[in-house]
Design goal:
Blueprint: E1 2-5, H1 10-25, E2 30-34, H2 55-71, H3 77-86, E3 90-94, H4 96-102, H5 119-126, E4 131-133
Parallel strand pairs: 1-2, 1-4, 2-3
Helix pairs in contact: 1-3
């Protein structure tokens, strides 16, 4: 399955985490193409916030969700993602053009992120597969 991640919200990040790690556990190849604002999710220092809340509460709401996740045994979503990537069933692809447009460097991203690809590379990879936009 192939996903386009175009949003930087905490909700989209968690959807990607749950779908990607579950698919990987079911032995389904999961590819995520990060473009525009979604590319920020791949930056090590980026802290996603909850969308749809008044600005001062966005970060606080994300913190509340993190506490709830801990009750479900999810201490660090990035650890789950890294495990799925290490198992070879989940791949994270940054969009090269968006990186250039937004002046985002490869060094800012997690080490387990794939090399950047362009839109043509994602379309080629998705040929014959399912594509979902997050």
């Amino acid at each position: 399955m192939n996903f386009i991640v175009k949003d930087k919200s905490f909700e989209k990040f968690m959807m990607m985490t749950i779908l990607g790690t579950t698919g990987g556990a079911m032995d389904v190849e999961m590819n995520f193409f990060f473009t525009f604002w979604g590319l920020n999710l791949l930056k090590r220092k980026f802290k996603p916030k909850v969308a749809g809340m008044p600005t001062p509460m966005k970060g606080m709401a994300a913190g509340m969700f993190r506490k709830r996740l801990k009750k479900f045994g999810i201490e660090d979503p990035w650890e789950l993602i890294k495990e799925a990537v290490d198992d070879g069933k989940m791949k994270l692809y940054p969009c090269q053009m968006t990186m250039d447009l937004m002046n985002i460097k490869r060094e800012e991203m997690w080490d387990f992120v794939e090399d950047p690809i362009g839109a043509a590379g994602f379309i080629e990879m998705s040929d014959g597969g399912q594509v979902v936009s997050l």
